[in-house]
Amino acid sequence: MSGCYCGNSVSFQNCCEPYIKGIKNAPTAEALMRSRYSAFAVGAADYLINTTHISKRKYHNKRDILAWSQANKWLKLEVLASTETTVTFKAYFLDENLKAQVHYEHSTFKLENDKWFYVDGEY
């Protein structure tokens, strides 16, 4: 793979992996959203839980997240628009039946203690 899962031209090791491994914090809402997409691609369920806002974590189950991330083949991410606290995107993937799917979402993020968190999204 030439670029990162999130669509950036730099390698995964130099793009989203440092965020997923906890070496660095994502500097923007968009960087967090891109790293969360990469986390789905590599099955990093802990990162997905840890970057979900504390008020919303009870709605997310690690086992279900991991199962869903592994059942799908993640193809590409397309960021349509982003502001300081929102990102609108399309995530392209093949489901467990190898049927092409597009997940469209307008996500909201919150900065707390110098860390960005995913709050929720409109599908």
UniProtKB/TrEMBL annotation:
InterPro entries: NTF2-like_dom_sf (IPR032710), YchJ-like_M (IPR048469). It comes from the Bacteria. Residues 28-121 form the YchJ-like middle NTF2-like domain. Gene3D superfamilies: 3.10.450.50. This is YchJ family metal-binding protein. It comes from Flavobacterium lacisediminis. The lineage of its organism: Bacteria, Pseudomonadati, Bacteroidota, Flavobacteriia, Flavobacteriales.
